[in-house]
Design goal:
- By secondary structure, this protein is of the alpha/beta class.
- It has one domain: Aldolase class I (TIM Barrel, Alpha-Beta Barrel), CATH 3.20.20.
- About 45% of the residues lie in helices and about 15% in strands.
- The chain has helices at about 5-15, 25-35, 45-55, 70-75, 85-90, 120-130, 150-170, 190-210, 235-250, 265-280, 295-305, 310-330; strands at about 20, 65-70, 95, 100-105, 110-115, 135-140, 175-180, 215-220, 255-260, 285-290.
- The strands form 2 sheets. An 8-stranded parallel beta sheet has the order 8-7-6-3-2-1-10-9. It has a two-stranded antiparallel sheet with strand order 4-5.
- Helix 10 links the parallel strand 9 (about 255-260) and strand 10.
- The N and C termini lie far apart (about 40 Å).
Length: about 350
């Protein structure tokens, strides 16, 4: 059987009403979340947590692809079955986070650039051999007094485009993630202005690096006020501002937009995605999907707490969150679903 092309994989990742599960937290991030809940921060406990996720019954009904971390893609279940095989058997496409994290950008106080291009071609070839069919690279754009600078936006856009070109060369779908961070007191309008500027810069660089837009996915932030902004926005205001921004900046050739949750609560992320699909699904050229991490995992982690006995209840909570987002893709999510 011939291997699926990147165009087929990109379409499959946003097909129907499914979305992506980001379970690619780095070891320090995972440890931080464990520590907050009193969960031991060891390799084996992290492995057990990820086994709980990938073995969740019926997860493939809601999740099209799972983004793994380097440690996770090498791991197996207690029974010795590689996580990659568990996912594939569940009908879930395995993916891999390939960036080396955001580092301080020289000459730009308070700003960062994502590193990891060195040796990326070889790493992508290895991940493809292991069964990965897509990859992810996250750039972070901070908002504050006088930032983001043009230099920061351009540096991150160039890195995202070079990563995406290398992915496609290796037969992997690049998930391009430019995240305008929610930290700060910026307004909805300022977030919209910066997000549009960032997306325009990213797509200009993708074009210059000859990335096939049909064979990639965009993973952006939703356009929302900063967490410390004194003027909140309604779910509908966020939905409208987000789609308006995307229509101005994202080419129609891109098959899908899979939003990050970026620290939103699970319920709010679902409600905002739902509003976008209710209001715009028939009027936009791309699928409006999800690629959530905490917004799917957090309730399950709080139930699990490192205890084997809690696995079934934690898996139920994980499936419930994934199912809520599946409903949001159809524009059928309601707050009442949270009580079922």
């Amino acid at each position: 059987m011939k291997a699926p092309t990147i165009l087929e994989t990109a379409k499959a990742l946003v097909a129907g009403d499914k979305g992506l599960l980001a379970m690619d937290e780095s070891t320090p991030t995972c440890n931080r979340r464990f520590a907050a809940l009193g969960i031991p921060q060891t390799d084996d406990v992290r492995r057990a947590y990820r086994e709980m996720i990938v073995t969740t019954p019926n997860l493939g009904q809601c999740i099209s692809g799972a983004i793994l971390y380097d440690q996770t893609i090498h791991q197996e279940t207690k029974a010795g079955i590689p996580f990659v095989k568990v996912l594939i058997d569940a009908g879930i496409i395995p993916g891999i986070k390939v960036d080396a994290g955001a580092k301080d950008l020289a000459g730009h106080e308070g700003e960062q650039v994502t590193e990891g291009l060195d040796g990326l071609r070889e790493r992508l070839a290895q991940y493809a051999q292991m069964g990965a069919r897509f990859a992810k690279w996250r750039a972070v754009i901070a908002v504050g007094d006088g930032i983001p600078s043009r230099g920061c936006i351009e540096a991150n856009a160039q890195a995202l485009a070079r990563y995406a070109a290398l992915c496609q060369e290796a037969g992997l779908v690049p998930v391009v993630e430019p995240e305008v961070l929610m930290d700060g007191d910026h307004t909805l309008a300022r977030c919209a202005q910066i997000t549009e500027e960032v997306l325009r810069a990213v797509f200009e660089q993708l074009y210059l690096q000859q990335v096939a837009l049909e064979g990639m996915l965009l993973k952006p932030n939703m356009v929302a006020p900063g967490l410390a902004c004194g003027t909140p926005a309604t779910v509908v205001e966020v939905a409208d501002a987000t789609v308006r921004c995307l229509l101005r900046a994202v080419p129609a050739a891109v098959p899908g937009i899979a939003f990050l949750s970026g620290g939103q609560s699970s319920e709010l992320a679902s409600a905002r995605l739902n509003a976008m699909n209710v209001r715009f699904k028939t009027r936009v050229p791309w699928a409006l999907a999800f690629s959530f991490a905490r917004a799917i995992q957090q309730p399950a982690m709080e139930i699990w707490r490192g205890e084997e006995a809690n696995v079934p209840a934690a898996q139920q909570a994980l499936f419930h969150r994934a199912d809520c987002n599946r409903a949001a893709r159809r524009g059928e999510y309601t707050a009442a679903m949270e009580n079922t």
